[in-house]
Amino acid sequence: MTTSTVRVLIVDDDPLVRSALTLMLGGQDDVEVVGEAGDGRDGIDLARRLAPDVVLMDIRMPRLNGLEATQLLHEEPDPPRIIVLTTFDADDHVLGAVAAGADGFLLKDTPPAQILEAIRRVAGGEPMLSASATRTLINRVRAESGDDRASEARDRLALLTDREREVALAVGGGLSNAEIARALFLSVPTVKAHVSRLFEKLGVTNRVQIAICVHDAGALDEPRPGPQSS
């Protein structure tokens, strides 16, 4: 086992779901399932004891639901990354998961390859939301915003260099760091450095908020910058 192996804890009250996820993840060289729990309370206890890198968290569970468990784990001194994996794509669940501190939100019918990609990306510090979850967040923010928020978002994007704006647009388009690096002919560490500067310049704390800012400003509707710019 290498140090780059992602240690995963599965928290779900359905033993068939836990078994299916364990079977799916068990065939990966870079992912290890270190434990399973049938409710949020046991999930918290196991997370504290096993120190997983990523927790796959169901929402509707006995004793303690997944959103409450996510919030409690998020408040730990060194919390794991958490992907909420659920059957339900309701707006309140998406918003509740993000507010609780989840790093990802996926539906259980997500193809296995995408679940694996989400685990790897979240373990590397990149939030991962399903397309429908991202739309839910953006639509809710837009509904609560209006012209003032759009103007503010445009002002914030105006603070960026041309390259930083390119990276911001790519993040807003849902690209991972590796995909941005290929599109803009940059190294992945350089992309990570740009994203870190975006956090500071835009006054945000995660990639979802970058995407919301880009969408608020209407920047994705503009002609996309070419990868040849510097």
Biggest sheet: strands side by side, in what order? Answer: 2-1-3-4-5-6
User: What is the domain total for the residues?
Assistant: 2
Rg result: 18 Å
The CATH homologous superfamily of the largest domain is called Response regulator
Mind telling me which CATH architecture of the largest domain this is?
3-Layer(aba) Sandwich
Query: What overall form do the CA principal axes indicate?
Result: globular
Please trace the helix and strand order, writing H or E for each element.
EHEHEHEHEHEHHHHHH
Alpha plus pi helix count: 11
Cα end-to-end separation: 40 Å
Strand tally: 6
Mean pLDDT score, rounded? 84
Named CATH topology of the largest domain:
Rossmann fold
Helix content: 40-55%
SSE layout and pairing:
Blueprint: E1 6-11, H1 15-26, E2 31-37, H2 40-50, E3 54-57, H3 66-74, E4 81-86, H4 91-100, E5 104-107, H5 112-123, E6 128-129, H6 131-143, H7 147-157, H8 162-172, H9 177-184, H10 188-202, H11 207-216
Parallel strand pairs: 1-2, 1-3, 3-4, 4-5, 5-6
Provide structural commentary.
The termini are far apart. Residues about 225-230 have low confidence and may be disordered. The chain has helices at about 15-25, 40-50, 65-75, 90-100, 110-125, 130-145, 145-155, 160-170, 175-185, 190-200, 205-215, and strands at about 5-10, 30-35, 55, 80-85, 105, 130. It has a 6-stranded parallel beta sheet, sandwiched between helices. Helix 8 crosses helix 10, helix 8 crosses helix 11 (about 205-215) and helix 9 packs across helix 10. Strand 1, helix 1 (about 15-25) and strand 2 form a beta-alpha-beta unit. It has 2 domains: about 5-130, Response regulator (Rossmann fold, 3-Layer(aba) Sandwich), CATH 3.40.50.2300; about 145-220, Response regulator (Rossmann fold), CATH 3.40.50. The protein has about 230 residues and is an alpha/beta fold. About 55% of the residues lie in helices and about 15% in strands.
